[in-house]
Amino acid sequence: MKEINIEKTKTEMRRGMLEYCILLIISKGSVYATDILNKLKEANLIVVEGTLYPLLSRLRSEGLLDYEWEESRSGPPRKYYTLTARGKENLSELKATWKSLSASVSTLMN
Q1: CA distances from 74 to 52, 67, 70, 71, 78 (A)
Q2: Range 89-107 average pLDDT
Q3: What is the rounded distance in angstroms from the CA atom of residue 9 to the CA atom of residue 80?
Q4: Beta partners for 81?
Q5: Are 59 and 26 in contact (CB under 8 A)?
Q6: Can you give the residue ranges of every domain in the chain?
Q7: Which uninterrupted H or E stretch holds 83?
Q8: pTM of this structure
Q9: What SS3 state is found at 106?
Q10: pLDDT tens, 8-48?
């Protein structure tokens, strides 16, 4: 019998929610990538830059995000991300899916 790797399962669960969580953070307003990382860490969703940046790039190429460069007082210009209209629609659908999925899992847990 093959041994079950619970850590792999937990990682996959977090990975599946990551896009949704990033869109939630960006929906609050223009945000810098480091701020996204900090918000994820505050929520115990530890993510490294090597995971975040490719995901932000993919979301932008899918038309869900846009960014603007802003001058920084302490270094080079920074990219600040915002949701596009398509990103807002996508987030709305994901919120509905999350509510439904969360209710289903809660039912099974009780």
Answers
A1: 22, 19, 12, 9, 10
A2: 95
A3: 32
A4: 31, 67
A5: no
A6: 6-109
A7: strand 75-83
A8: 0.86
A9: helix
A10: 888 888 888 999 999 999 999 999 999 999 999 999 887 88
d(CA 82, CA 85) in angstroms, rounded, equals 10
The CATH number of the structural domain formed by 6-109 is: 1.10.10.10
pLDDT given at position 2: 63
Question: What tokens does 17 get?
Answer: 């929610």
Query: DSSP alpha helices (H): ranges in the chain?
Result: 6-26, 33-42, 49-61, 85-109
Beta bridge partners of 83: 65
Q: Which of 57, 58, 59, 66 is nearest to 84 (CA)?
A: 66
Residues in the chain: 110
58's tokens:
């993919």
What is the amino acid identity at position 8? Answer: K
The CA angle 74-79-47, to the nearest 5 degrees, is 95
pLDDT score for 39: 96
